[in-house]
Amino acid sequence: xxxxxxxxxxxxxxxxxxxxxxxxxxxxxxxxxxxxxxxxxxxxxxxxxxxxxxxxxxxxxxxxxxxxxxxxxxxxxxxxxxxxxxxxxxxxxxxxxxxxxxxxxxxxxxxxxxxxxxxxxxxxxxxxxxxxxxxxxxxxxxxxxxxxxxxxxxxxxxxxxxxxxxxxxxxxxxxxxxxxxxxxxxxxxxxxxxxxxxxxxxxxxxxxxxxxxxxxxxxxxxxxxxxxxxxxxxxxxxxxxxxxxxxxxxxxxxxxxxxxxxxxxxxxxxxxxxxxxxxxxxxxxxxxxxxxxxxxxxxxxxxxxxxxxxxxxxxxxxxxxxxxxxxxxxxxxxxxxxxxxxxxxxxxxxxxxxxxxxxxxxxxxxxxxxxxxxxxxxxxxxxxxxxxxxxxxxxxxxxxxxxxxxxxxxxxxxxxxxxxxxxxxxxxxxxxxxxxxxxxxxxxxxxxxxxxxxxxxxxxxxxxxxxxxxxxxxxxxxxxxxxxxxxxxxxxxxxxxxxxxxxxxxxxxxxxxxxxxxxxxxxxxxxxxxxxxxxxxxxxxxxxxxxxxxxxxxxxxxxxxxxxxxxxxxxxxxxxxxxxxxxxxxxxxxxxxxxxxxxxxxxxxxxxxxxxxxxxxxxxx
Length: 621
Prior knowledge:
Elements: H1 2-29, H2 31-34, H3 39-48, H4 50-73, H5 80-109, H6 115-123, H7 125-132, H8 137-158, H9 170-189, H10 208-214, H11 217-229, H12 241-251, E1 269-275, H13 294-300, E2 303-310, H14 316-325, H15 339-342, H16 348-353, E3 358-363, H17 372-378, E4 383-385, H18 403-414, E5 421-426, H19 447-469, E6 478-484, E7 504-505, E8 507-510, E9 522-528, H20 532-540, E10 562-566, E11 569-573, E12 578-582, E13 587-591, H21 597-620
Parallel strand pairs: 1-5, 1-6, 2-9, 3-4, 3-5
Antiparallel strand pairs: 2-7, 2-8, 6-8, 10-11, 11-12, 12-13
């Protein structure tokens, strides 16, 4: 029987070695992120992640163990070694693919491979492929082949795929089987302790990247899938329900003051331009780079610049809902993908259509992407234009029509649209793989230069569009709103997923309908994409009560805060302090001023209440 134990132990230990290699590849690939850290933090993930490694190895070993136990009692089963070898190779290939995909996902999303990434890849494979094309594909392929080939070679020498025969009596076999299953169950559970093993048990550092390296990639994915399949449970239950409700209610309570009227009319045309990945780091007057968004900077001089605005989340699907429905990001979920829920949301288009506005939506890509089509149609966008309206020569290779073409199409249509109208335009050129129809502004093959070039192009298209719009009869009665769908790690490539600068974006109101005194105005109130709804409707004197998660940025009595989240945490930004909270490690991963401990605690509690109530609302739809 010892031979059987040795066979199983060798199989189990092989996976511990594989997980060591997975973690080693991650640490080596992100050497720059570990540079300057203490030696204990550089090697710590290999020790602190061992419990999750042992748990995941137990999950992988359960089927081989059951198969071995069956063989003890029915040794004549054919192709025994082939079955086990095939099982092992399948997992080697799948896990190797996950390991390499993890390297490039982490830079963009700040998380390891999870349910949302898997869902994105399965639901929108074309878009997922397009998003990956800015990654070093050749390096990825080489690493993948090396990991698969090396792991298969190691398995052949380390694992005995042939099961030794057993001459023991049936009751001894049964006792051994029970003992082995019990041991494996404990390994899977993580030990005898009251609470089963979880990701936070591998956390040990104040540096998020170190903790993320400690977490077993595949245990994390398995856990995330199981957590998300059970959608009716709120994973962000931090506080008693009444406490959370009161804290959120206070955030949206107006403390006296008054709104600031900035329009010359209460029924202007409204053109909403949502710019792909247009982070504040691109805009000089927001503290960003010089000469990457000159047109937007020019427009800001004749409009209202909102200086401290944060994207609700980190992807387009989350940004659209925050902008159009005033509903915050739900972190691990995306309400736009669930028709039964998104239909219960309000929308700017719906409100304005009911007030006599003609409505239209323009996007140069695939309108079915992430449930966008069902959302815009249900929420009373009368005219919907997507990539089907363009010729192949007008499109890039992956996403759809270049920005200049979608602007031209909207301009042509608006000439024949009855006023007042509400028209939404979503750009796409400033997206991986950062392709352009002409010569790039910034030379070089570096992804930072590519991003800056597509951003510069997107900005120039906006400038050319406004120049043409000014020649139209409807221009003088039109309010333009420009906002980004989300921020980006580029062009600086130095902010992790938890850093507030990753979420800071431009928001600009401009047009001839602005009062003279409003032109060039800079609003320093902190806010987010969700606040566009109530800010706009206050100016149009329309009922904004359906937009419970929105505040008027032009009201002196509204609260000064912005909220953002990502898969594993959230952030709260105010004039006095900004924090980010890691939900797995239950730690503060960023604070603007480390001396303001009481303010940090207050914002942490507010952020917990906010995310908890957002998810509770999402579940209630």
